[in-house]
Amino acid sequence: MQIVLIGASGGIGAAFARALAQRDSTTRIIATHHRHPPAWDHPKVHWHALDASDEGAVAALAQQTGDIDWVINAAGFLHDAQHGPEKTIRQADAAFFMKNMERNALPTLLLARHLTPRMRHGRPAVFAAVSARLGSIGENHIGGWYSYRASKAALNMVLKTLSIELRRTHPQLTVAALHPGTTDTPLSRPFQGRVPEGALFTPHYSVACMLNVLDGLTPQQSGGFWSFDGEALPW
Fold this sequence. Notes:
Layout (H helix, E strand, L loop, with lengths): L1 E5 L4 H11 L6 E6 L11 E5 L5 H8 L7 E4 L20 H11 L1 H10 L9 E6 L15 H24 L3 E7 L2 E2 L16 E2 L1 H14 L7 E4 L8
Parallel strand pairs: 1-2, 1-4, 2-3, 4-5, 5-6, 6-9, 7-8
């Protein structure tokens, strides 16, 4: 089984890479990093530098693969040195909003365009992206976090729409959006003080749960939005 793993140098992405490399069924992992090369390696893991919001770079990566069985996009963006999630509309900033869209929604669209042709082989396949429960419109009861919520909702819509289009051409493909839970990574670190006891997960635990979800899905469930614990989430 050949896997393309985007954002494999991050906390969740690295945990995915390590877990999938241990599987006997995994033959090769094409793992990408953005700015910082990883400090670890594995015989099954082949590293590539990639800006997943650059369509030319994504297209070039696709040319280096044969058939692909799984694609997982584990990259994401929440804050930078200048901006954090907005508590009020008064804090909205156009550039920060577009940066969220560019980092959280656009890459999966480009990956789908260029990699799903490599998944049309008739075998069971998975195309998944790490999303966030905050991207659920149906569960938004407290507001705030405009840019992050909007970009993750856009990601979810990309995945849902993709699942509908590929039902005919890729009948064995399962498309899924995944909520990892609150995971102990640099992305969530500034906000961990408000996390209830027992609700902050290690990347290893979060990834083990998400893989358990993916392993249990069927093509008939393609287009779903799933929590790490298997709960089907509202869009």
